[in-house]
Amino acid sequence: MAEASSLARALVRVLLLVTLVSHALYAAAAQVTAADLWWTLAAGRYIVEHHAVPDHDVFSYTYEGAPWFNQEWLTQVLYYELFHIWGGLALAALKFALVLTTFGLAAWVGWRRSGSLLFTTGAAVAAAYVCRPFLDLRAQLFLFLGTLVVLAIVEAYRRGARPWTLTLLPAVMLLWVNLHFSFIYGLGVLGLLAGSETLKSLRRLPDAPMPLPRALWLDAALAAAALASLANPRRLQALTFPFVLVGGESVWRSEIIEWLPPSLFREDYLNPAFFGYFLVAQILLALVAAAGTPRRFDVGDALLVAVTAVMALTARRFVPLFGFVSVPFAAKNLAVLRERFVARRAGAPELHRRRTLGGAVIACVASLVFLAIRFVPDARATFAPGIFEGLIDDAYFAPGAVEFLKRNPLPGRLFHIYTWGGYLMYWLPDRKVFIDGRAQHVYPASFYLENKRAEYGFPGWSNVLDRYQVALVVWPSEGFAAGRLAVALEQLRQSSSWVRIYDDGHSAVFAHVERARDWIEAYRSFRLEYPDLPRAQIFLTNAYLGANEYARAREHLQRLLRQFPEAGVVSREREKRLLETARASDAATAWFGVGFYRDVHGDGAGAADAFRTALEHGLGGPAATYAREAFDRLEGAARDREAQP
User: Fold this and answer.
1) Long-range Cβ contacts of 579-588 (<8 Å, 24+ apart)
2) Residue of 613, 563, 546 whose CA lies nearest to 585
3) Separation in Å, CA 360 to CA 4, 15, 116, 118
4) N or C: fewer beta carbons within 10 Å in the chain?
5) 428-434 mean pLDDT
6) Are 605 and 576 in contact (CB under 8 A)?
7) CA distances from 343 to 338, 340, 355, 433 (A)
8) Which SS3 state, helix, strand or coil, does residue 162 take?
9) Which pLDDT band holds residue 345 (cuts at 50, 70, 90)?
């Protein structure tokens, strides 16, 4: 069999690394909602400004003062400081760095265990497709990073690193316990690995047991790491809270999508179909490896992957964790099976055969081409507004409504959809929210069900808003409100107790006729300020029309069309719909609307004809007065043009 040159092998190793890094970047570049990012930033700002970690809720009016077990305070401070000083690009860079480091550590551990860069790259590439939908810009990133750091330190020690290397484990746990409550999983991983190494040393089990003194040093590091985890604001309570959180009230686990079990082999939100195939492949590979090479099969590593698989099958949020810890396990199993079933010259380097080398090149190039076809076209549109904006799906939230509320600092309690709570917390620090993504950290399950009744427009929805004296509702507008949110929007529109005082085509604000009386009066007297968004300004135009302020509406819309040419698309669409209605019903008001928009768009003759038709069909009131004046103005302008030489 012809062998490849050392240069060819080196070039293919570079290609494998490029493939690995490209897929890690692809996983990191997934666009996610990032709803939790905003309350994380709000909490970080509070900690920085008050120099204290709050142990009670300071952000909602519904549960203000309720206990808040804030185990992620260090992440909150880190994220806020980066965002505050350097902006969203710094957070995007942090996410890429954390994800790349996690994949890099997984690959390093896999390579050390297997000796095969080829198998390690293949396992990591597969894991990238499993992990991608879950890599949100949130504290959970430290679960993945912390786990792989622990695995890497233990692996280095297994391979002969000096005992002082283990001092890194307490340092890691000291940080992890204040970054994310999942540090308890890290302690479990360390305990499982230390226990298995000690057992292998005592029982002289297969797969290269380390000498007992070295295993005992690992046990000591476990004890030191457990003590280091007590260095947090809640001390011993931090060790029990993660179990309370994971095993908490069933409402949260049945209602919050990331806590739902995955549906295998089906593609859905936070439910990659590939996970099912990845899981089955891992199980089959482990079984074959255990049966074919029992002395090379590590029970401790298998238990770690098995426990994590059970966690992933219980809740989707653990699917990416399973993907990461499976990379070293799969790479080693593939390598030992190759040694068992594929003949190979003793001491021969990996990829020494030209045929194997060629297969690796074809696989890498094919995966990179597939990645480019799948990612590049969407990436251009996704990241056009900016890298950070593309990563967090900035269009999901309600920046227009937030700007409207900032410009009009009148009092009023807010109600909003659950996933907008954190966004409002950060961008409207002077207003307390109804609920937010801190979920069971602050709010009881019974309250979440109340919120759901109102948010989904279930019977009794208005009673919930009355009970909490809600004055303002911030809601997705037509075209963005889907499913039950659209039902709630329609109920708000039809209710006589609520008046829409803002709408930019993406988000709307409704004011209660009694509890938001100041807002209603300001709206009806045109004292509210509106952001410079085309659809928000068109909403103001419609408000003028609704108040019979026709001349003011015309002047405002003409100015708007000069300032925002794209607003012409909306206004011409409105004219088209009115014309269809007028022709179908011959209603005087519809013909009046056609005349108004034709006038604004500069179609004097068409406007005069529509106004004449409206008057002939019995148009009355202020609209008739305006129509006559507009008809005379337009006819006069037409005569002046005809009189000009």
Assistant:
1) 582/610, 582/613, 586/617, 587/617, 588/614, 588/615, 588/617, 588/618, 588/619
2) 613
3) 12, 9, 12, 7
4) C
5) 97
6) no
7) 8, 8, 14, 66
8) coil
9) low
Nearest to 320 by CA among 367, 279, 375: 279
CATH architecture of 546-645: Alpha Horseshoe (1.25)
89-98, 154-163, 388-397, 404-413 — which is least confidently predicted? 388-397
For residues 126-130, average pLDDT: 97
pLDDT of residue 440: 87
Phi, psi at 52, each rounded to 5°:
-160, 145
Closest by Cα among 399, 406, 397 to 528: 406
Tell which wins on pLDDT, 141 or 213.
Answer: 141
What are the domain boundaries of the chain? Answer: 12-33+90-381, 397-531, 546-645
Sign for the pseudo-dihedral over CA of 392, 484, 398, 432: negative
Mean pLDDT of the chain: 92
Which pLDDT band, with edges at 50, 70 and 90, does 204 fall under? low
Residue pair 321/278 in contact by the 8 Å Cβ criterion:
no
For residue 567, give every residue at least 6 positions away whose Cβ sits within 8 Å of its Cβ, in sequence order, or none.
534, 535, 537, 538, 560, 561
3-state per-residue secondary structure call for 242-304: HHHHHCCCHHHHHHCHHHCCCCCCCCECCECCHHHHHHHHHHHHHHHHHHHCHHHCCHHHHHH
Q: What is the CA radius of gyration of the chain?
A: 32
Taking residues 464-493, report their average pLDDT. Answer: 93
CA 594/CA 579 separation, integer angstroms: 6
- List, in sequence order, every residue forming a beta bridge with 268; answer none if it has no partner: 271
* CA torsion angle 557 560 565 569 (round to 10): -40
What is the model's pLDDT at position 65? 96
The pLDDT-based confidence of 142 (bands split at 50, 70, 90) is very high
Mean pLDDT of the region 548-570:
92
The 3-state DSSP class for residue 497 equals: coil
pLDDT at 348: 59
Q: Residues 524, 527, 531, 536: what is their CA dihedral angle, to the nearest 10 degrees?
A: 20
Report which DSSP code applies to 420: G
- The whole-angstrom separation of Cα 354 and Cα 343 is 15
Strand, coil or helix: what is 59?
Answer: coil
Mean pLDDT, rounded, for 441-452:
93
